[in-house]
């Protein structure tokens, strides 16, 4: 019996009577089945971790967008800068003990429900007052 000629993987795939080199066979079969299963599990965990991170980033982007909308509504209605509008939302958050993202979501949901009155200063003051848990906007 003659010894098979050594070849590259491409040669092996292209020719029926050519066998891969001993080095290639050794490299392809060097891992134990448990090592391959462990590697597959690691790859799966990394993919799941990546998906979780992407979901968290998307959620943060949605919150940031809603925060920006709320700041913009306050800026337009009260003719204030972005910093002052954000401070107002922070104040409401502190007064109510509600996390800022929840305050901005509630504010925007209710402001959108106002429809054409969404830039009405009195309506927005009332809304902010309710969110802050206060009876009216004139008390301090």
From TrEMBL:
| The keyword Transmembrane appears for this protein | no
- Residue span, ANTAR domain: 47-108
One Pfam match, by short name?
Answer: ANTAR
**InterPro entries per the record?**
ANTAR, WH-like_DNA-bd_sf
Q: Where in this chain does the entry annotate a coiled-coil region? A: 40-67
Please name the GO terms that the record assigns under molecular function.
Answer: RNA binding
SMART domains cross-referenced by the UniProt entry: ANTAR
- Which keywords appear in this protein's UniProt record, sorted alphabetically? Coiled coil
Q: Which domain of life is it from?
A: Bacteria
Protein name listed in UniProt: ANTAR domain-containing protein
The species this protein belongs to is Actinomycetospora corticicola
The opening ranks of the lineage are:
Bacteria, Bacillati, Actinomycetota, Actinomycetes, Pseudonocardiales
């Amino acid at each position: 019996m003659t010894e098979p000629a050594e070849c590259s993987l491409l040669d092996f795939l292209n020719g029926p009577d050519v066998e891969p080199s001993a080095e290639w066979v050794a490299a392809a079969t060097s891992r134990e089945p448990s090592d391959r299963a462990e590697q597959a599990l690691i790859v799966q965990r990394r993919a799941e971790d990546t998906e979780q991170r992407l979901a968290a980033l998307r959620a943060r982007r949605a919150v940031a967008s809603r925060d920006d909308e709320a700041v913009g509504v306050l800026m337009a209605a009260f003719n204030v800068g972005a910093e002052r509008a954000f401070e107002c939302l922070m104040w409401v958050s502190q007064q109510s003990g509600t996390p800022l993202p929840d305050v901005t979501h509630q504010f925007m949901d209710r402001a959108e429900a106002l429809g054409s009155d969404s830039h009405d200063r009195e309506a927005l003051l009332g809304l902010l007052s309710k969110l802050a848990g206060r009876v009216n906007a004139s008390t301090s």
